[in-house]
Amino acid sequence: MKPETIKHTRRHLRIAGAVALVLGMAGTTPAVAAQDPGREVIDKKCASCHLEDGKLTRIPEVRKTPEGWDMTVVRMGIWHKVELTPDERRAVVKYLADRQGLAPSEAAAFRFLTERRPNMQDAPPDEEMAQMCGRCHSYGRVALQRRDEDEWRKLMHTHLGQFPSAEYSALGRDRNWWEIARDKMPGRLAEMYPKNTDAWRDWSRAKHRPAAGRWIVAGERPGWGAYTGTMTVTAKGSDRYEVGYELHFGPGNTVRGKGESLVYTGYEWRGTAQLGNEQTQSIFALSEDGARMSGRWFLRKADEIGATFEAVRADKAAKNALVSVSPQMLRAGETATVTVAGAGLDAKLDLGSGVEVVEWLGKSAEQLKVRVKVAADAAPGVRKVAVGGRASDKSVAVYRQIDSLRVEPAFGIARVGGGTNPPVTAQFDAVAFLDGADGKPGTDDDVRLGSVPAKWSTEPFDERAKHDEDLKFAGHMEPHGQFLPSFAGPNPNRRGLNNVGNLSVVATVADGERSLNAKGQLVVTVQRWNPTPLR
């Protein structure tokens, strides 16, 4: 054997030994661990740079979500030309997310970011954190990882090395940015988001319930309405599943589909499916006991369009587990058909004071359907729904009239598009409210009734928008509340401007003989060229 071959072989063995030592699972024999495809990729393509004094560096000192690890892998390809096949990339992300992920409680506060919920407000803990860690990307990208102080400090050095202009840009040049980033922020971040926590220790040691089985599901797609249905999950390997869906949006509108999913970290569901004629992705989270699931599914090429998702496992252990009650609004003095969906349901239903069940229309372990009469003098407000004598977390609201209306989101963003970068639409909902105890609309104690049908229109937000004719050029509103922005690029018919705009979104709702209006703001802005999973 040639000397250079011997040298290469010895180095390869040192790398393999370091990976086995640092990333191996407790109690796993080397022969078994070596079979993990993610481990093999780290051995061959990651450890060659991350090995120092016989130990793997940086990689073992971080915990992230699946999206966080995927962004790291992609970044290594961009910065350091690490070439991975799609299968290798998936294997590495799976391996690291399972062993160095986040516990459910650690990821909960920023699930809106993981689920790509559009037009959600990022919430840094204070102004300094917002300015230092949330002015170039969302603060949630920081909060969805865990490091010790030394590793947070290394991340500061990485930022300055890769993005040196950060020190001189807005909110950087007006302070000693680098001294704050290097000396103060690592300690604060390590205290808030430490690498070693009881939550992760307990979760990583626990045995997690597989997702296979039958699930009763429900949710709401803005512009379409609420849905209920079933999801059938069949195991096809370690944490891998085939999935079948049947979703009922209303009479004559049933959407069926099939797909597949992969579960990371014992609870992080990531799936794809063909639902009807739409290609979708799903990002769900299993509850810690594995009995429930929640999250969001959305269009693969337009993640701003999607639906909420909630599910309960339909097995022998399920007992009066509710997933939805529809409708959620009941007007005093009227009758209505109410449907309760869930698992293990008893035919004993209580919808609260002033709401009487007058006729049973259907009874099963997965659905209760009744005709109810609401007393004319029933007090407006929320009633908890009880099944089998046990109160649930679901409710209905009794009302005499809608007190106020809101447009959600109150502030939305759409993006012009064209070429290889399609437009980003904005979906709005009209939501009815009752006044709270103070009798004033628009306060925090208002009672949310739910989404209501509306007529939609747009108008200039201010005098500047009127002067620039934003209403004419920025795009148009569809009848179901979806704004479709115009094409990107300079518009020669607009005095050199492109098709951006600042608009008011107006919802008009009929409530008996009354008509209510509400407004939100929509900014139609330019294209975004780096749509990362965590933004």
From TrEMBL:
<dbReference type="InterPro" id="IPR015183">
    <property type="entry name" value="QH-AmDH_asu_dom_III"/>
</dbReference>
<dbReference type="InterPro" id="IPR014756">
    <property type="entry name" value="Ig_E-set"/>
</dbReference>
<protein>
    <submittedName>
        <fullName>Quinohemoprotein amine dehydrogenase subunit alpha</fullName>
    </submittedName>
</protein>
<dbReference type="InterPro" id="IPR009111">
    <property type="entry name" value="QH-AmDH_asu_dom2"/>
</dbReference>
<dbReference type="InterPro" id="IPR015182">
    <property type="entry name" value="QH-AmDH_asu_heme-bd_dom"/>
</dbReference>
<feature type="domain" description="Quinohemoprotein amine dehydrogenase alpha subunit">
    <location>
        <begin position="210"/>
        <end position="314"/>
    </location>
</feature>
<dbReference type="InterPro" id="IPR036718">
    <property type="entry name" value="H-AmDH_asu_dom2_sf"/>
</dbReference>
<dbReference type="InterPro" id="IPR036909">
    <property type="entry name" value="Cyt_c-like_dom_sf"/>
</dbReference>
<feature type="domain" description="Quinohemoprotein amine dehydrogenase alpha subunit haem binding">
    <location>
        <begin position="38"/>
        <end position="200"/>
    </location>
</feature>
<feature type="domain" description="Quinohemoprotein amine dehydrogenase alpha subunit">
    <location>
        <begin position="319"/>
        <end position="400"/>
    </location>
</feature>
<dbReference type="InterPro" id="IPR013783">
    <property type="entry name" value="Ig-like_fold"/>
</dbReference>
<dbReference type="InterPro" id="IPR015184">
    <property type="entry name" value="QH-AmDH_asu_dom_IV"/>
</dbReference>
<feature type="domain" description="Quinohemoprotein amine dehydrogenase alpha subunit">
    <location>
        <begin position="405"/>
        <end position="533"/>
    </location>
</feature>
<dbReference type="Pfam" id="PF14930">
    <property type="entry name" value="Qn_am_d_aII"/>
</dbReference>
<dbReference type="Pfam" id="PF09098">
    <property type="entry name" value="Dehyd-heme_bind"/>
</dbReference>
<dbReference type="Pfam" id="PF09100">
    <property type="entry name" value="Qn_am_d_aIV"/>
</dbReference>
<keyword id="KW-0732">Signal</keyword>
<dbReference type="InterPro" id="IPR023887">
    <property type="entry name" value="QH-AmDH_asu"/>
</dbReference>
<feature type="signal peptide">
    <location>
        <begin position="1"/>
        <end position="33"/>
    </location>
</feature>
<dbReference type="Pfam" id="PF09099">
    <property type="entry name" value="Qn_am_d_aIII"/>
</dbReference>
